[in-house]
Amino acid sequence: MSAPAKLPSCPICGKPADPKLKPFCSERCSDIDLGRWLSDRYVIPASEDEDDGDLPPARKPESE
Ligand SMILES: [Zn+2]
C-alpha cells in the first residue's frame, strides 16, 4: 500500500491524523491518549516510602 502519508497516523485508532489535532484524528482519540497517559502515571508501582499498608484505611463492615 502506498498512501500519501503527509499526516501521522493516529496512535489510537490508526486513522490519518487531523492537522488541527495531530497526531490524533479526533478529540476523542486525543482524550483517550491523555487518559492513558494519566492512568499510566497513576499505575506506576510507587513502592517508595509509602506506608506499606496492604489496604487503605477503609472502615470494616459491621458484622452482627
Ligand atoms: Zn484516532
TrEMBL record:
Segments crossing the lipid bilayer: none
In which domain of life is the source organism classified? Bacteria
**Residues annotated for Zn(2+) binding in this entry:** 10, 13, 25, 29
Pfam families the UniProt entry points to: YacG
In residue numbers, the region (Disordered) covers 43-64
What's the cofactor? Zn(2+)
UniProtKB keywords: Metal-binding, Zinc
Q: Which family does it belong to?
A: Belongs to the DNA gyrase inhibitor YacG family.
What is the protein name given in its UniProt record?
DNA gyrase inhibitor YacG
Q: Which organism is it from?
A: Methylobacterium cerastii
